[in-house]
Amino acid sequence: MENAYKLLDGRSIARDMHQQLSQDVNALGTDGWPLKLVSISIGETDAARLYVRNQKRTANKIGIGFEERDYPSDTSESELLGIIQGLNTDPRVTGIIIQRPTPEGVSVRRLQRSIHPFKDVEGMHPSNIGSIVYEAPKMGPCTAVAAVHLLKSTNTPLQGLEVTVIGHSAIVGKPIAFLLMAEGATVTVCHHETRNLAMHSRAADAVFVAVGKAGLVTGDMLKPGAVLIDIGINQIDTPHGPAFVGDADFDSCAETAGWITPVPGGVGPVTVATLLRNAVTAAQLQRDHYASEFGTSHSVYSLLNRP
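Structure (tokenized):
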């Protein structure tokens, strides 16, 4: 029997997002609010280099400036906090990105908390994550928001939908659960202490998996026709060299799932597009803040020339 699954092509969905974002970026630039992102990498960052390259290429394509800053591994946390504070107060900087991993002794969470919420384009400041709980998100965690966007792109009604989220991290699993509950879905969150994981995944109309374990989810763990959003990305060795795979065994899952994301090419491109959508939101928030602060509309250039 021929497989009936539909591929959730993240690259195609991201391209559609880029068209609207390009228009928004152009409009903000015309109003005197050109967008610029600053990426901060500390130490040897080979693991993050691909992400930085993708972020920069996509940002530039839609008209957003992108500055890469690389700091040596012995840069102290206090120095980095000072650098971030300077970027927070610079009206030319729309958003700040902290690339992972960071060296031992440098807390990425502390750096993230030091970014002003209006410049937190990754959506990881506690205030931006917390706003999801109150169903008033402005800039949510990019990967979580992207994963939910992929589910919505299937036109599956979310009200009453049974969803299982495998993985309960603060920046992916938990935000996904809150975002979906706000849409009326019934959500089960599973983790390493969960007994009989397959029992929960088989009962779900949609399954999200984000644990960093290749092949964790197999086809016999899914309800026929379920939507599978695979957020994991793992490097494995194959006879042809290293390859990247998700947390699901694609071939077996494709025999059961109704919709499935590929890895790579699924959640990743939509995550980058979501980051850039957050940048647009950040610019709008900053523009409105300064208008409220000074009682009139200001451009980046006029703020730089204030006495």
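Residues 267-294 form the longest helix (28 residues). The two ends are 73 Å apart (CA to CA).
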